[in-house]
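A common beginner's mistake is to predict each chain separately and then try to dock the pieces by hand. The better habit, illustrated here, is to supply every component at once so that their relative placement is modeled jointly.
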Amino acid sequence: MTAIVEVNGLNKYFDALHVLKDISFEVAPAEVICIIGPSGSGKSTLLRCLNFLEQPDIGTITVNGKTVKADDTGRERKQKIHDLRLETGMVFQSFNLFPHMTALGNVIEGPVTVKGMSVKEATEIGTHFLTKVGLGHKQDSYPSRLSGGQQQRVAIARALAMQPKVMLFDEPTSALDPELIGEVLGVMQQLVEEGMTMLTVTHEMGFARRFAHRILFMNEGRIIENGPPDQVFDNPSDERTKIFLSAISRLGE
Amino acid sequence: MTISTASNQSQAEQIRALRRRKERRFSLGVNLSYAVLLGLLAYAFSGIKFTLFGLQFSTIQLDTAFIAENWYFIFNGVWLTILLSVLSIALATVLSLLGALGRLSKYPPAYALATFYISLIRGTPLLLQIIFFFLALPQLGIRLTGLWAGVLALGLNYGAYNTEIMRAGIQAVDLGQREAALAIGMTQGKIMRRIVLPQALRLVIPPIGNQFIAMLKDTSLISVTGFVWELLWRSQKVGRANFRSLEALLIAAVFYWIITIMFSIVQANLEERLARGVRTT
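With all components supplied together, the output reads:
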């Protein structure tokens, strides 16, 4: 099967700091990838490059046949990035819901302003996705009246409403109180079961082990492990992975 | 008051009642104090004489006949003052929005133009600008009435100051908002209009409202053109003619004060309207 995401020779600098070093990998349709690694290893930057929220300096990214090269320029580049973003949905660590819009308003914003749908049509879709994340009854609530877990589920519904081919999760549970993490992971599990292609930067090792098809372990801007969870967690090939995993597991006990 | 712990329901009610009583007591105290302050102010201008510890005190004696005869003439300037304010606010708001977008633009001429505009306008006195538009432009063949010269000067002037407030407001909107909007494929223009500006406006209403309250009173500077019969101009005219400037200026002051209070109420309402979705407690 051809890959739905292809990353080729990706490099990114923050001034003199080389944060992504020659990253290349592919993701198959319906594959679930968890990106783990120590803080500062470049995992969030990598994820944010996939929809060009960060601009890579070298390399190409292809999502569902839409390719953007780091050195594309001008109007063509803008259009290509726009096309690529329509193939991806993104969920942020800090939710980033629009505070002046209701839950439903957040979810239909994309369909109405980007896809040009009528409000009526978009509302149908919006209600569908809010119900899917278990918040059909909260569609008229403003984000400030929702718990962190509820906000993140609205954010997932907002991304899904654009009907992307690939979902990107950037530490979706890191800002949540422990008892609220489960409801967000539950929604993500549902997406896994429906065959959504997902890339998730996470510290939830339990989720990664249970649901990921493949783990990418990053360290200092490189992918140093790329394999199924059993292999990466139980039999890591690199010494740094072992150190990271033992530090994490000590915390979990 | 002690709170009984008979049941949770009644306990919550008692606490709420207690809080409400506290709030009521506070606002009652504030209103009483207002009344006392107003009373003192009125007393100061009552003309009553009294003796205390053998010293003769006299309050200010106003010419009530003059006031009765002329207050309405001065009051008629209120409409012009409000008109000048509204027109200048409209112009200043448009300019400050454009200015802020220019200041944040990556397109060099737009950035330069906005920065140049702010520097030039903030670098020269408002009074000079008003007189310039009224007296200097005719030399270039451009004749503006006093009203339009004043509105142009005030709008340009406050537009320049508000540009910086507007820019700060736009920049204060969390970067994550823009990123979330980009991630769902929104274009820069739509992000500005639908996501960033509504949130920025909420932030800038208090400082910009403050500016407009200052501007409301700066409309009085337009009286120097001599052709705009607004509040100050009218009060000076009748005050000088009758050697009753004290009374005439006090009347104008009272009207300015009242308009300012009304402006503040409008501002508070606007603030509340834009606070949709914002938790305040």
